[in-house]
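Hi V.,

Quick status before I head out on leave. The structure for the redesign project is tokenized and pasted below; the design run finished overnight.
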């Protein structure tokens, strides 16, 4: 039986020659990974304040953690530093239905699904980067 691949990581993406600029991209990814690790060390040393991340998709949600069980490995996240150390209740009040139910659980999920959202991280990202 042949393995089933979904998304963009099919067998054709995992074999064959690498693009000419892939080593430069590897260097950039390594540098960014090192920068994230350095910032994570500061975060740990200073007592781990609350963080909020947004998925960058048109129906994106806000998450408390980069490792939420509802995220896929290919999910692109934006770190919302303006919401650092904000309580879960404040995130829900701001994000409404866009607050992840796994990261920000409440007793009344049905009511929360009807709450309007004051956050559209995807639109903000696209506007900021001139992609609309």
């Amino acid at each position: 039986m042949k393995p089933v691949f979904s998304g963009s990581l099919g067998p054709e993406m995992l074999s064959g020659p690498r693009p000419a600029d892939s080593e430069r991209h590897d260097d950039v990814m390594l540098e960014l990974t090192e920068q994230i690790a350095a910032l994570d060390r500061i975060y740990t040393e200073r007592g781990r304040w609350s963080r909020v991340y947004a998925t960058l998709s048109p129906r994106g949600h806000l998450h408390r953690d980069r490792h939420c069980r509802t995220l896929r490995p290919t999910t692109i996240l934006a770190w919302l530093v303006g919401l650092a150390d904000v309580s879960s209740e404040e995130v829900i009040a701001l994000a409404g239905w866009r607050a992840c139910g796994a990261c920000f659980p409440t007793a009344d999920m049905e009511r929360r699904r009807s709450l309007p959202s004051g956050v559209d991280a995807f639109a903000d990202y696209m506007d900021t980067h001139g992609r609309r």
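Above is the designed sequence. Residues 49 and 79 are 13 Å apart (CA to CA).

G. will cover questions while I'm gone.

Best,
W.
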